[in-house]
C-alpha cells in the first residue's frame, strides 16, 4: 500500500527539521561503536571489579560471550512493576542458554502517579522522567554491556528509559513489559463511584471498596492511561517483541516472551551478525509510527510531551503540529476506557495491537520499512505469540475484530480522526484530546474562573460557587512553576458539574494525563504562566472561547494584550516532599510544547 500523503509529509518535515542534529547523533553513536565490544578496553583491574560478584566470572574474563546489562525499575510500590522482582533470575537463565552473561547494571526510581495524584509528590513526577534517564545513564557508564534490557512500564519510566537507550544509542536495546493486571471492577463503575463521592452521595468506605476492587493485583492498571499507552508505543516503535505488551503477568506466555526478549538481546550485539544499535531503531519513521499508534488507540496526552523528549535524545525534533496533522489523518480504531467501556485486557482479546498494525499498514498509515528488535519491517508485528507444543511461536493475528464495540478497522472507525487537536490563540499553544468528549462540547465559550492550584477549584466546588457555564483556568502549573503535576484529581469534580448540565472546560499550563476523558481540557498551554505566559493575564470574568473544531483558544477581553501579567508566587511548591532538591530542574526545564525536558 502506498504511504499516506500526510504521514509521508510529516515524516519528511521531521527529517528536514532534524537533519543537522540527527546527523550529529548518528556520528556520535557510530564513533562509540567503532572500537567493538566495550569491556575489551577496560583494564584488568576495571574488569575484576566488574566481574567480582558473578558466578560465571571466568566466562566474562576469558570468552567473547555477550554481556547483557539489565536496567530495572523494579519496586513493589507500583503494581505494574512488582512482577519485575522475578525477572533477573529469568533473564540470567535465558542469557546463559543463549550463550551470554547477564548483570543487573542498575536500578532507576519509579514513582506511582496513582499514589501521588493531588499530593505534593506529584510535583516531582514529570521530573522523575529525567532522573530515570540520568540513573540509567549512570548504570550504563560502566561500559561493560553489549546489549541492554530495560524493565519499565509506567508513566515517566518508559520515556526516561528510552531517553537513556537513545543516549547510549550504540548499545542494542530491548524493552521487556510486565503486562496488565487481570480485569477487576469495571473502570466506568469506578469512575461513577468517584463522582458520587465528589458530590457527597456516598462515603469514603464505598469509595475505598471500589478503588480496591479496581486496583487489585500485580500488573498495570487496566485503563488506557499513560502506562498502557507506553506499552503500545514500544510495540509500534519496534522495541517490544510482537504481541507482548498486554499479556498478563506471571503466566506461561508472559515468561516465554521474557525469555525470547533476552535471546533477541543476545543476538543483536556487535559480537554476532545482527548488530542493531538502539539509535538505528529510534529513527524518524519509528517515532511517526508511535504517533500513529497513539492516535489510532486514543492514547495518553502525556505522550505528546514524552515523545518529543525521547526523540530529542536521538537527535530528532518533533513539534505538536506533527501530532495534530497525524491525528487528522489517522482514524480512531479503539474504544478503551476512558474513551470507552473496555479495558486493555478486553482490547487485547479483541485483536489488540496486532490487529491495528495490520489494518494501519494496509491503509498506508504506517511505515513498514523500519528496523525493529524482531527484524526488519513492521509486518512481523501483525502476528500474535502462542505456546504451542510447549514452545513459543508466532502465528498470523486476526484481521477481523473479535469485538467491534472495542476495535474497528480503518474503513469503519469510531471517529475519522485520532481526536488530538493543536490549539493556538492569544492564550498560547497547547493541545486538547476530544476522542471522549461529546461533539456538542467541542466549542465552549464562557466566563473564566481563575485558580492557582487544583485545591482551590475543589474548595470552590464544595462551596457551591459553580452555578453557570465556566472555563476553569488553573495556571502556574507548568514545569518551571511546580514541575507540571497532573490535575487528574479534578476529573470527578468537573465531571459532576458537566453532569449537572453546565458547560465546563479546563484550561491549564499543567497536565491532565491519560485518564482525562469527557470534560474538555486545554492542556500544556505554553508559554506557561510562571514565565509571563498569556494565562498570567487572564482575570475572573473574562470570556474565553475554546474551539476544538477550529483549533483555537482565545481570551476575548478587549484589553487582554495590554494587561500586565500576574507575577508567579511559588508558595509551598518550592519545599517539602523533596521539592527543594528539584529547584535546579525547575529553573531550566524546557517548554511543554517541546517535551519539558531537563537533560535533553
TrEMBL record:
Pathway: Carbohydrate metabolism; Entner-Doudoroff pathway
Reactions listed under catalytic activity: 6-phospho-D-gluconate = 2-dehydro-3-deoxy-6-phospho-D-gluconate + H2O
GO CC terms, sorted: cytosol
Enzyme class label: lyase
GO molecular function: 4 iron, 4 sulfur cluster binding; metal ion binding; phosphogluconate dehydratase activity
Dihydroxy-acid/6-phosphogluconate dehydratase C-terminal domain location: 405-596
HAMAP family referenced in this protein's UniProt entry, alphabetically: Edd (MF_02094)
Full protein name: Phosphogluconate dehydratase
